[in-house]
Amino acid sequence: MMPIQVRLGRLALHLVLAAGALLSALPFLWAITTSLKPARLTYTPPLVIPTHFQWQNYVDAWRAAPFPRFYLNSAIMAVAITAGQVLLSALAAYAFARLRFPGRDLLFLAVLGTMMVPFHVTLIPNYLVIRWLGWVDTYYALVVPRIVGAFSIFLFRQFFLTIPSELDDAARIDGCSRLGVFWRVMLPLSGPAAAAVAIFAFLFAWNDFLWPLIVTNSVDMRPIQVGLAVFQGRYGTRWTLLMAGTIIATVPALVVYIVAQRRFIEGVTLTGLKG
Amino acid sequence: MSPPKALAHPPLLSTSLQGFLVAFERHDWPSAFVCLLPVALIFGLFNIYPALYSVFLSFFRWDGFNLQREFVGLDNYRTLVHSGAFWHSVLVTFYYASGATLLSLVLGLALATALNSNLAGRTIYRTLYFLPVVTPMVAAGVVWQRLFDPTHGVINGALSWLGVTGPNWLSDPAWAMPALILVGTWRRAGFNLVVYLAALQAVPRIYYEAARLDGASAWALFRFITVPLVAPASLFLAITSLIDGFQMLDLVFVMTNGGPLDATNVLGFYLYQNAFRFFKLGYASAVAYAIFALIFLVTLVQWRLVGRRAEVAYQEAA
Amino acid sequence: MRQFIWQRWSQALAVAGLLAALVGLAAPGLLGAALAQEPLTLTFWHYWDGVNGDTLDRLAQEYNAQHPGVVVEPVFIPNPELLSKLQTAIASGDTPALAIADVIWMAALKRSGGLAPLDSFITASGLDLSDFYASQLDFDRFEGQLYALPVSTNNLELFYNKDLFRAAGLDPERPPQTWDELVEFGQRIRQADPSKFGYELFTQGGEGTTWQFQVFLWQLGGEFLTPDGQPAFDSPAGVQALQFWSDLIRTYQVSALRPWGLFGSGDAAMVMDGSWMVQFFPPQINFELGTARFPIPSGGQPATNMGGEHIFILKGDPAREQAAFDFIQYFTSTAVQVQWDQATGFTPVRRSVAEDPGYQAWLRDTQPLLIPFVESQQYARARPSVPQYPEISAAFSRQVERVLQGQATPEEALAQAAADVRAILAGP
Fold this sequence. Notes:
- By secondary structure, chain A is mainly alpha-helical.
- The longest helix of chain A has about 30 residues, at about 5-35.
- Chain A is about 65% helix and about 0% strand.
- In chain C, the strands form two sheets. In chain C, strands 1, 2, 3, 6, 7, 8, 9, 10 and 11 form a nine-stranded mixed sheet that branches. In chain C, strands 4-5 form a two-stranded antiparallel ribbon.
- The chains are: A mainly alpha, B mainly alpha, C alpha/beta.
- At the A-B interface, α1, α3, α4, α5 and α7 of A face α2, α5, α6, α8 and α9 of B.
């Protein structure tokens, strides 16, 4: 039995966490409720607790655009980008965190700099590059330009810094090459970081809208977010269908999160070797 | 050309290859080259080249359509320096970016600390707090607009229950930005939670156990073990949230349209308007590089001041 | 033997090389011949979603069935991004054959150098331009040439909530006809239920504010810009209109500073909105909807503001341009426009459509809510077709906001707006 103070503390903690969780979840709950309403009640309360279950909205939303194809495109794009970001970014981060070479900090600043240029002004030049490569309307255009990211490199670098360098030294003494250290020491020890990068890379790719729209011309190459735009038209938003489509589109991202966050298990003491 | 030179080649090649292999083992740079090559190629083609191209565009007057562009030298930058609207946007953006960054960092770390435990239901909490990150902004915009409604909204309802008359949030120039900062924090905290949860995995539990045996309080554990040991993650989050904050656009789109009275006309929105609504792509490119310079400066300061201190704190704690 | 084989080989090679060269030379011709057999595909970019998009698909299919050599392929591009797509397309030369754009974008598009002028096609086809509303074509002319044709339009009139009217003891079949009545009815609504507003103003700035304000200005006989494009809104009419807006909020408290959307959620009884909402409101609201011509100030005149889309050809080879024009001629023809307007609820761009007996019967029998919009088409005014318009609109609405926030008088604000607009027009 826990002492009474601890139990009261836990209870208070639960109260605070639950209130915050409700606030966090509110817009998502609203999306679910709206997706199940008859259109006529779009603007009427209640906001959060579903009182109607118009599953037909999901059927209608699914039929409003070639969603199976959009799903497939998004899946191909998101998986390829996630795999690329995890591997290639980790590789680059290893160089920045552990290797010594001239101009390292300058190069790293340049990498960070790529995050600081507003995307909108590079849109046209970027399209011209894709066109020059002959990649307009292909998966290459959807995947390759985003297969590495400064964000992922930076995140990996910060995690590699927390891995005790005694571990690489030991591996080097055992005859491991530098790339071997990366593969056998750094990568296996950065599970939680890789999970975080994977979550963000997947989400970024899955939610991306403008770039895929600009570099594709045929409807067959579009990802799911472009499909959702059908419900948010020039003259009005069809809220019930938009929210049904949105829920359909969000489920994979949530599943990826729930699976990946299992990596964050309390008490993993991989790096406890040092302590 | 002449045979001797041709014959001289193979040995030269082999020595350089040998030399390379020796260098590969002796120095770090050859491995670094291999590690960075894919990144360099892709960034070069899809980030650096387009960025330089748009620097070039910033010296032109161009509506984004017309096949003819007019070279105007530094005019766009001159206009920008003298534009009251631009400097107003800079201030407003600093306000948003610093507010949302600070609040979401504190909240993210607090949540991660609470949820990196054997607390019952922690998986459910982790999922619920992450929901804002995946909630589409259109849905969030609608709900927050209603929550901020001065007469029917829950927020002012709660305030009046406490005896405070709440403001007309989104339609009041003084309160619209605090409202956006709250929404930005709401969204960003779940994101920071993930990074901090990952970072806390690397903190050996044994530190806490040792400190607990010494009779340290929960606050002391947090202050002297958790905070310094997640410092590299904090630096990462501070820098990336500031960069994101400086470029924020979608919240403004769904909630305020830059108003009231430009109170939420952040740089991202200012740039978007100039590029795609006002057809001033040359000027917008100049704005982009002004934003770039500002973020770069702020990042450099963070890096030098906070970064150094964070790494020192980390090493001392570890 | 060896020698012989080598000879045979070299001969074979020579023949093959010759053949390859011939094929190479002939290939463009062959390819062209093959393409002539293939139907010519005309990609058509648009942002019409839902019923509008479905109707366009149907019309294109009918057209394709009648024209075996051509396939018109409509491609939906989400609204704001259609503009970015057109920018990258024109800048890179990868253009669709056809596209539409919001009237507001036409000032920039027609100057881009990427659109094909239509005059020679129109002359050759004998298309009667005088049947199109002249104010519509103003958007499409540049340096003496026509670059687009209107295909759909809409305008602003009054929507009101009949349930809230009843609750306030007002006759739901008697909407306000004057500004005074707008205020009076609005106050009655508020008295009946203080949590409801009488009239919803667009107070969030930008074009939403400006284009609604222009209606009030025009009703009072004011002008937004002079014919040569200088500010004209800083006039007595402008001051009176802006004072009225300010009074609606600050004096009469009929309206409020709130994000847009109070009418749809049933929290405001009246609103000025576009004819497209005749299609969007009814399925999404939970009250009885009415429409009417917008109230007029005493001594004023009817006026409304028009929006809509215009269709144009992107420069390509002559065959593609001609085929694209043929489709435009089909799409803008009276018969097809009648079908289009009936299916979508857009209001007519041609007189012959508005006067078509079939269209009128359809309107009378099935679309009473749309009647005020079609009636007011003759009073519809066009926003100035200058490329700086979006920036002018933003500067203007900012000053309107200052008045609504109580930070300036209408006179001060309009003088400031005029100065700002002059600066925008002067360049950089």
